[in-house]
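[Target chain]
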Amino acid sequence: MDQFTLNLLFVGASFALYIGIAVWARAGSTAEFYAAGRGVHPVTNGMATAADWMSAASFISMAGLIAFTGYDNSSFLMGWTGGYVLLALLLAPYLRKFGKFTVSEFIGDRFYSPTARMVAVICLLVASITYVIGQMQGVGIAFGRFLEIDAFWGLLIGACVVFAYAVFGGMKGVTYTQVAQYIVLITAYTIPAIFISLQLTGTPIPALGLFGEHTASGEPLLAKLNQIVTDLGFNEYTAAHGSTINMVLFTLSLMIGTAGLPHVIMRFFTVPRVSDARWSAGWTLVFIALLYLTAPAVGAMARLNISELMWPNGTEGEAVSVEQIESDPDYAWMATWQKTGLLGWEDKNGDGRIQYYNDANAELQERAAANGWEGNELTNFNRDILVLANPEIASLPGWVIGLVAAGGLAAALSTAAGLLLAISSAVSHDLLKGQLTPNMSEKSELLAARISMAAAIVVAVLLGLNPPGFAAQTVALAFGLAAASIFPALMMGIFSTRINNVGAVAGMLAGLVTTLLYIFLHKGWFFIPDTNTFTDANPLLGPVQSTSFGAIGAAVNFAVAFVVSGMTKETPQEIKDLVESVRVPRGAGTAVDH
């Protein structure tokens, strides 16, 4: 059976499973559409949340960014994992106790203001739409490779699948679909990693293999990788090279952005009790740890494999020949990926070989000149293809490649569904039902939710055709927007009675606008290419890149909210009592009074 047929079987079977679950768990009421009837078990919810969380950025893009940058991109792991600790301790149980369907509804009631609710809707839409661009990007890449079609048609097929199980199933359908998707994606991620770890180190646990010995040379694997990449003029893999300030801000932005993402927070409204919300967050950490502990090994081992394939005779020998790339089965993956436009090479000096090295490294210029090299000839290696191409690079069996195809699509589609639910609930429940047409029937509200989700899918496809960066970089921008706008409002809403309606609105707008402006200045206005004034290589504020500005935007939000609240009317007593009732556990009143 050829590889294309295997890919179709794995992807088709997984899609049939998702759609079947969505039909079985079809939402028949708003409670089921928005919160799955509040009857989801914490373990089930933890698994669904992990799938919702482990998007195209985590599955497809993160290991690729780590592979080609090394230590500096470990901040993705630290920020995204640490965010769940914040979510479990500071937000999830309190928001579940409040008992509403959406984040915007909580903000509107806590800050006793329809305006606050509308501003929260705007913040949610901006962050979620930015986030979904990365998911559509991942869908296009995965379909483009494994179904051997243009990325545009890949986006359309993926959008139709999301529409089928998210629009009809709602939160109830998506929850149980995401449980299946988690099983698919974690299996697809870990099996190739185990195979490759056994090949390179003889260790079946990739996280341990990362610190083990390379079986062929007897050297520590990371030491061998450091030697190869530095020989080729790249930065040492295990050393930090970027700005420490930017790395700290980036990690913090990812952490508080995680705790402020509406589509993740919504999952904690689906459990029966307040204590279950905290347990759900704990189980989510367990489930995502399986992938996040494996990702650094996947990145390092793939980088080593690629480097050795490009220099089969060692870095002091001859580079791989064009003839070998075209005829050797071990290099067949290169021709396959070249068709997608995401991998490319060019024999610039006509010597029949493809030299892969860092042609910007001054120390390598003398060697390049002596050998007649005319620049790096591996001209394009999109970071987002690495995990999907990894089984082919390591010459693993065809069924593993098909499994990874299904896993990559599961990761992108599961998060896209969660984001589209957050968007649709903001439009139908918060905007239409909450403000414009409060007498709307439940049936009309469900219809409006499904229509708004369909419209959001169309927008996501259009934006996914022109993303502002690799999938994980695009998603990091969304985290920065959530960190700057939503997280501070939730924190102040739960833990401070001083913040009033005017302060909350002013803070959210200040955080959102400043962060959005900073992003547009670096990534282009509305992500339109060549409209930017600065770049992340040359940022406006010293070392602070656009993906790191969310932490500063959050500080602006907090500061503006406290200053404005101090200059305006005090929070009403009934709202103060509401805050206390949400924050203080039942039965603790006597202890608190004393």
Q: What stands out?
A: The longest strand covers residues 343-344. The chain is about 70% helix and 0% strand. Confidence is low (pLDDT under 50) at residues 29-37, 587-594. The CA atoms of residues 165 and 188 lie 21 Å apart.
